[in-house]
Amino acid sequence: MEVREETDSRMCLRHRFMKSYKKNTLALFFCFVLSIILITSLLILVHTNHKMENIQGKMLFTDADCSISEIDSSQVEMLASDPELEWYALRQLQYQEYQKDSPDNHLDRGDDRYITLTAVVEKGRLPEAENEIVAERWALLNMGIEPVCGEKIEIYDEKAGRTEVCDLVGILSDVPSNKKYGVKMLYAPIKSEGEDNYSVFVRFRDGITYEKKVEAVSRELGIEKKQIKKCPGREDLPGLWLTDLKFISVLLVITMIIFYGIFQITMMSRRNPYGILRAIGMQSGQLRRLILSELYEIFLFSIPVGGILGTAAALLISQLSGDSSQEIYLNNEKVSFAPVIPFLQIGICLAAIALLIGIVGYFTGKKIVREPVPDLIANYGNKEKDSVFSMRHFHWKKDGDRHGRTYTLYSLGNKYILKEKKTSVFVVLTICAGVTLFTGLAYQKNIAQHYREDTAEMYYLNGQYEMGTLSIGSAYDGVSRETAGEIASLDGIRSVKTQSGIPVRVVDDKEVKRNDTYYDEMNEAVLENRHYPLAGNDGTDQIYKSVLYGYNKNALAELKKYVIDGEFDENGLKDNEVILSVLHMDDTKKKNKYPGNYKEGTPLMQYRAGDEIRIKYRQDFDTNHMAYEQLTDTDGSYSYKTYKVAAIVSFAYMYDCNITVYPLLITSDDQVEKLCPDSHIQRMYMDGEENLTEDDREQLERRLIRLGSRFQGISTRSMMSDIRKNEMLFRKQMVYVVGIAVISFILVLINVTNNLNYRMKIRTQEICMLRAIGMSVKMIRRMMIFENIMLGVFGVALAYLASVPVLRYLYGQSNMRAFGHGYRFDYTAFFGISFMAVLLCILLAGRLSKDWKTKKIMEQMNKVE
């Protein structure tokens, strides 16, 4: 009974404190709510984003754990009987058939699961008989076949030397890996009389240790471990837990810094009533329980509010980022992008906060009860024993001596910074945390911007529609110039970028410095695999192979932003001018041994603007044969031409059909046409009018496909969905950054405002005395502004020391090094954010001192704090 009465009494007292100190209660409540919003929304977004990126990886690389290559039917049977397999997909190797006279149209054979690993049957059904096939809509259109079930398709069996008629029984959704590169594929069931050589995609059951299982499979099947390749789309759960740990640690640090500052202000303002309670008989343990129970009650009320708002914010961000609008298919099913709510991680984070709150509350209460009761009642803990007006520290002259007035102002400001050490420390720490966080967010925004641009480059997302060849053998590959003109004049086409090309040999004088190690390795590998060299002596000159590409005006204009040396006129290059596109090696940490389209790093060949380069090309432009590739075409007549290098670019912009490793030569299209009037266009990027409807876009795509299908080896497809996905990812990251910034700004603002407000409140009597001896409100405001500026500067200085490792960590976690971007501290963002932080301190000082215009001196001096 006594325990219950004591509990009821403490509850009543706790609620009275909460009501009497509404501002402190609300400050703690909002601190907890905003912290929980930040924790909940971030963890939901991290897990949802991880799941979405994992699904996007599976979209390209399948939902399998690994693939096992080159095994026979007996090994397949052994694998199929493994009880630890969830499923497997079977592909028949080395039995590709082709459409006659169309060697770029491939036929792939596999079981039902293999055919639909990254697709779904949109119309019809999967093939059952050996003469039944399915294909993607865009691929069929490019083959000149109407995507309608029941169509008859002639397939030429190259091995048997005969033509077979197959039935189209189903239409597949776009297979991302095919559409990305323009590979036109037909799918059929496994052929019973085909070769006994298979590739298997395997998914293990949940809970199976991948490394141990791979070793067991390798041993049981009697195959080499290199035949088992891990799927790039396999989910990295240990990596997710590590990310969770990092996020939770950072969030706990930010939350506790802000909470501790607000809580200390709350405790300081209650010293007097706590002293009175101790004087009338409250035990030290009862007082500690009173403090803890109030804290936990506020925290418990904030959990549902913060949890609901945080979940709603995460769902809103997911909606705004466009996650749910994506259509991705795996294993003949549509994959949904439902938000992932990690209850365990959120629970762990909340439990950790509750534990830390208890520790802070316990030790704070313990410190309070150790103080003498008279000191608590008199609130000596908030005051200096020595008078702040001791003339030893400063002198005051009302008139005349401006130096004395300034000296007094600065002395008071510095004195109060040292006098209120705790609040000074927490203001500095809060400013430090805020500036560091916002600098990190600004850096993350730059990373997202780089990733957006680099991804668009890597996947050549240079137009809404793309038409081109998979390789270039001669200047006559691609679409004719007449057809290119028809395309440019189509209704609905807004702009066209074109690329024509002529295979050439560059006379190599060996004077240009180069990466011989890399070129020697590449030449050896190509010679072994393709049986022809990339460079060598053709009987007349020492040469390396390249392509002279001709860009139209629109393409040259896009190329301008990749210039790293020299300059050129996008309206057209002169007859003797050329642009070189040179791959670079990664210089950031020397870990990436492969070259790329880097804006930084050492070029594979160190040409400079102004250098001369000499090429030779066959006069008949007949280069699409092995003799040309093997440098044995001694019967060919060659013409020579010398160019001046106008500029060096890091990226060629238009797709290089042959993936040339030696420098590419780029000129204007009219120059290529002069050399070879009958040359074709190997690649085109087209943009439609902005006001086109979805039906208009579909009709435009069909017209483009019909025009492109006139020529062999051409793939035409819409890149709209890929562009939207790339933009969606960037938009999602920007929404994340803005959302985190808004919540963090509110948290920082609440904490700084509370600390500064408290610093002003506890010196009320002293400021009144200063006013009584002649100090104006204007001088008080100046004193506070100076004090806040000093606190802001200290916070910014500490933030710089914290921001350097934070930005290096963000850089290390991103893929920027792989794209050739070196680390640079973002001074622009840091100093901009620092200026805003100091300005905020000044504005808060002005707002807090405004009340002193109306406060009565004697009334405030008689107030008991």
TrEMBL record:
It is found in: Cell membrane. InterPro entries: ABC3_permease_C, Macrolide_Exporter_MacB. It comes from the Bacteria. Residues 247-371, 740-845 form the ABC3 transporter permease C-terminal domain. The keyword Membrane applies. The chain crosses the membrane at residues 26-46, 240-263, 298-320, 340-363, 425-443, 734-753, 785-807, 827-848. It is a multi-pass membrane protein. Keywords: Cell membrane, Membrane, Transmembrane, Transmembrane helix. Belongs to the ABC-4 integral membrane protein family. This is ABC transporter permease. It comes from Blautia caccae.
